[in-house]
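Following up on my earlier message about pyridoxal-5'-phosphate. Here are the inputs again, as you asked, copied directly from the submission form:
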Amino acid sequence: MNLTYILNQLGEDRHAYFNAASPPVIQTSNFVFNTVAQMQQAFTDEKKYRLYTRGNNPTTEMLCKKIAALQGTEDCLVLSSGAAAISVAVLSQLKAGDHVICVEHPYNWAYQLFTAFLPRYGVTTTFVNGSDLKNFENALQPNTRLIYLESPTTMFFELQDLEAVCQLAKQKNILTIIDNSYCSPVGQHPEKYGVDLIIHSATKYINGHSDVVAGIICGSHAMIEKIYKNEFLNFGAISSPLNSWLMLRSLRTLPLRLKQSSESAQKIISFLAAHPKVERIYYPFHPSHPQYELAKKQMLMPMGMFSVVLKTSDRNTVVNFCETLKYFLMAVSWGGHESLIIPACAFADDSGYPVGFIRFYIGLEEADVLIGDLDNALKLI
Ligand SMILES: *Cc1c(COP(=O)(O)O)cnc(C)c1O
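Thanks, got it. Here's what our run produced:
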């Protein structure tokens, strides 16, 4: 992958906009025609010829070219959120009577889609522990149409063997979709193993500045074209031109941001793993992870998010720890410039998490500053 070409050249048309280094935001809802013939042509294929921004906008189109190239798929769609990307991709492949196999602990709104929404339309789902291929085999039904993956998941960081699952799916003529948000389009290539559709919450690493909510679906020309003509145009969950432009701006620094987040996370994990007040670490690239070898095989780099369990069963101690941290902000989401925590003790009482469970995302601050902050707060335990 030639990152320099993709990030600085691909899709750019600088002579068309005054040789500006940075492209314009084409903030328009529609496009005008000089002749009836041109308008007629646009009606025949609105993805190719511009007609209306719900279908196609040049700023979003430039972003699509770059993200499809980064992920290594033929095409992609940009949507208004990661949740929209999940719903559109999943709904595009199912009809009443179909069965889905989904990994345990997927992103919450994927779980809601499978458990609360799809049953209304006669689609059933079996959740399996994705660490063992046998669990997928055992869950197969004659009407299984889709296997939904998230590798790794983003609370417990469980992986699935993408090569093995895809092999099984192809044998049985079952489609595969993966939520690849954790790794970004740079850190994992599920398309190489044959995953059919790859989803990203672009809110996270892709945009990376905590100022845009967006989603991506990557796949073959044929699959993306079909989704485009049906669910995409029908649901209308598009990215605004300004949000697409902000993501184009963000892509310029994606590799640098990933590198910083990853390197700092590893320093911080080394510190935490050696700390007597830390009971457990959930991180694919830590040797204590049961799928460490698989992580090294199918992920291209260690990423910047992990969970820990602090050595305490006292909720107040965890609350004090979280509220003492100065540089880790308490918030949902991740992938931006700022380091974040989500303590499980903020969830409903019956969530089933250990009291000391905290998810960490490592942003772009100096690792030493973050370690100092942790060291100080850990003294409370
Ligand atoms: C945040 C997130 C989503 C949902 O994305 P939104 O842009 O917030 O709708 C999906 N999957 C994962 C793994 C996420 O972290």
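One observation from looking it over: The first strand starts at residue 75 and ends at 79. Hope that helps, and feel free to reply on this thread.
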